[in-house]
Amino acid sequence: MKTTHIEHIGIAVRNLEDSIRFYEEVLGLKCYNIEVVADQKVRTAFFMAGQTKIELLESTSDEGPVARFLEKRGEGVHHIAFAVDNIEEALEHLTQKGIKAIDNKPRKGAEGLDIAFLHPGSTFGVLTELCEDKNKKR
Ligand code: ZN
User: Fold this and answer.
1) Among 68, 103, 106, 125, fewest CB within 10 Å belongs to which?
2) What are the respective helix, strand and coil percentages of the chain, to the nearest 5?
3) Cα gap 97→78, rounded to integer Å
4) Distance between Cα 39 and ligand 1 center (Å)
5) pLDDT at 137 > cutoff 70
């Protein structure tokens, strides 16, 4: 598999507007997109810090994965997303290596990316997301 860069860092927050204010007014970054990802039961806000994207995640439901994360661990870094050049191939490669995936097949994430999460039990405690931007290439 070919991992090209860190696509983004995902941060779980309780209140999107409050946290956007911190990133804009204190850190001086600009929120360039807010998007609801119904599939993951989140509302997301995006920032670029230089070349690195930051994704803030607010849960839209008490049942969603981010709600469960906040309940267990509170606010903070939720996942790290790596860009790969071929997500299907990457998942197959990882499965062969015995890495447990949460998503065995890619699904649509925010910003039209194809994404898949790996299980933190297989990745030394870090919830790891793989992303491929098929729009960019094809
Ligand atoms: Zn993400």
Assistant:
1) 125
2) 30, 40, 30
3) 24
4) 13
5) no
Tell me how many domains the chain contains.
1
Distance 109 CA to ligand 1 centre (A): 8
> Over the stretch 7-18, which tens digit does the pLDDT of each residue have?
999 999 999 999
Could you tell me the CATH number of the domain that includes residue 71? 3.10.180.10
Residue with tokens 């995936």: 101
Q: How far is the CA of 19 from the centre of ligand 1 (A)?
A: 17
What is the distance between the terminal CA atoms of the chain, rounded to a whole angstrom?
19
Query: 113 lies in which domain range?
Result: 3-132
- Does residue 115 form part of some domain? yes
Distance from residue 97's CA to the centre of ligand 1 (Å): 23
**Residue 123 is assigned to a structural domain of this protein:** yes
Is 138 part of any domain? no
